[in-house]
Predict the 3D structure of the following.
Amino acid sequence: MALGKVRALHPDFFSDDDLAEASIPARMLFAGLWCFACDNGHVADRSKQLKRWLFATDDVNVAELLRELEDVAEVIERAGDGWIFIPGLTKRQRIDWRYFKTCDRPGCEKPPKPEKSNPERETRRATSGTRREEEPRAPKPVGDGDGDGDGDGDGDGDGDGDELLVADRDPSPAPQPTKPPRPRPDVDRLCNHLADRIHANGSKRPAITKAWRDSARLLLDRDGRTEDEARRAIDWCQDDEFWRSNVLSMPTLRKQYDRLRLAATRATSHQPSRIQQNLAVVSQLAAEEAAPHPIGELT
């Protein structure tokens, strides 16, 4: 097994907008890739090897999960050269240059040694001792209570006794804009088709929510159903007297899809074929011709 690295998992991992589009196994795979990637964010694109490393006892398809991370969540890149690149690894991890790890990918090299993170801080630290020796600290006024030295106890240092207003404080950083979801015409068509069929059966047309779109997307992407198969399932359940009152949303359709498929198969197998129907008509006509006619009808 390859030698991995201990990585840190930030709390923002669980609320990341990009990862929210991926399934839970795909998110676990993404976190596991960090442990076996080099510090430049490279890991060998070998699905079977990653399955042995990260999901040794689980029945998952790592190749499908990698495509989900690339196409749905868009948190990894695969250039087709046999390597996976994690662009956000250096942002999510604090890399120690002394133990920087590289890999066999061409061009993967250890970066030059960084300079001190904050030279001004080091300068202040070096001069602070001299200043304390040269300038004696002013005595703290009695009754100050807040340590700012103005004696008013409000903590703003202006001596007026008024508390520091919110507008005077440093503003918090602006929130990052949320990346809009990618358009999925196939998902929209399925959601609209189910909503139209429910409305046509006499019910109020349901609202198409994010849960609807997520269920339709997972039905196509994760469950492997084609759009045509999903449309036939919608039509069959909405034509059936029992299922039309039970399937009133896209999440319910995805949850009950296998039961719907089996029920539709049983219903089809119980119906006589066209050949059987034709044979039954011929037999009925032959029986009518062989039956004796009343005497009055022979004239």
The radius of gyration is 35 Å. The chain has a mean pLDDT of 80.
